[in-house]
Amino acid sequence: MTEAFYYRPLGRDGLARRGEIVTPRGIIRTPAFMPVGTVATVKALYPEQVRDAGADILLGNTYHLMLRPGAERVAKLGGLHKFMRWEKPILTDSGGFQVMSLSKIRKITEEGALFQSHLDGSRHMLSPERSIEIQCLLGSDIQMQFDECIELPAERREVERAMELSLRWAERSRTAFLAQRASGGAGPGQALFGIVQGGTDTDLRRRSAEALVGLDLEGYAVGGLAVGEGHDLMLATLEATLPFLPENKPRYLMGVGTPLDLIEAVRRGIDMFDCVLPTRNGRHGLAYTWGGAVNLRNAVNADDAAPLDPESSCPAARDYSRAYLHHLIRSGEYLGAMILSWVNTVFYQDLMARMRAAIEEGRFADWAEETKARIVTKPAA
After folding, report:
1. pTM for the full model?
2. Which residues are catalytically annotated?
């Protein structure tokens, strides 16, 4: 077993990249989609289901885990992997996005973010140093720098202010991470990723990317997108940003997205994704299938005895009828949310596997158009 962390390129088709991220806890096949296990669980699924769906890595949330059950408690219980019975790699976000979006009261200073818990109103200071300390206590394999993510659209001066603050916080995050590594709080195979900010301003994105690359981190994320700017502008921003990121490091698009988003971002050179859509939409009755998205709440499914998706590799999609799933969702039964979360998690992992195969075969562009015609442009039931 390796003690190193590195990206191993295996091939490309145009700008689309096929590779592996090698970690002490296993290989992450890229392009990769990380199911979101916000509070040490992927909602409505057993860890074994997530593993068997094909996920090589999960995402955990620093903000939520620091508030409950607490990072120190998780560390005392053996770390996040043991706590949630997940042996493969885990990436933890820095907590910055949740501080900005969930806390009742927050104040951003050079030191960090002073905020009030959405759970009990208790006050906390989350700084770059504390964020890294929490992530090390959790034992995550990939840790994210602390950053400030703002909603778009926003004035350029506000976007620039947040970008520059995030760069200063990136330097402090790196210093804190190296100190943790020197003291044994972080292992040699753990990694720190920087987060490129700058809204949709191409000059700010370039400045952010170049400064972060100068820190020589193990990987780089593109943050601050899918926050109101729209699909086309998100892709244009990616096209302007990715040329400034190194070819030999992983590239992670945070918080994205729909199947269309994933296909088009991979086409432009992204390696990693996370998003709550597969499980959140599943809990609300929306299923992703190879014939297009299906809203099981709709009455058209009430008398449909056909399986949800006979092409799916998920047994539930092949074995249960649309009529039965419609009944479960309309009745508010837990089983409906569980089945559709499972179906969607498998769909997203199969989507990534098909992308990897298309890149290896040198037919990604054709595959993308064929797949989009099936799963994106077809009207949902």
Report:
1. 0.97
2. 93, 274
